[in-house]
Amino acid sequence: LKGNRQNGFDDFAAVAQDIVKRGIATAGSLGIQGGSNGGLLTGVSLTQHPELFGAVIIEVPLLDMLRYTELPPGASWMAEYGDPSKPEDAQWLSAYSPYQHVKADAAYPPVLL
To answer: The pTM is what?
Structure first.
């Protein structure tokens, strides 16, 4: 996945947008929950599309993709996520890393982290 990981995040947002467009749910009533890689997905969804969700539950996530290698198992994940010490990898990791995109003035839905 590496540099193409954003495609999955975009697909997830497109499904949420379609659910709202079809009237299946409103953005305010649509909640998301994810753990581990799903926690990364929900963290990215929160920072990239906070207007799409009424609540977000994030469990055991990786949210700082520029420092995840500092975790004990972090080095074993580099084949999947990329190496943040390499400029090319760091560029696309920082483009979606939730920790780097939290904004003080953004209107976020309620979050359980």
So the answer is: 0.95
Number of Cβ within 10 Å of residue 51's Cβ equals 11
Say how far apart CA 81 and CA 83 lie, in whole Å: 7
pLDDT tens profile 47-76: 999 999 999 999 999 999 999 999 999 999
CATH number of 2-112: 3.40.50.1820
C-beta neighbour count of 112 within 10 angstroms: 10
Give the containing element (helix H, strand E) for 57.
Answer: strand 55-59
Provide the residue ranges of all domains of the chain, joining segments of one domain with +. Answer: 2-112
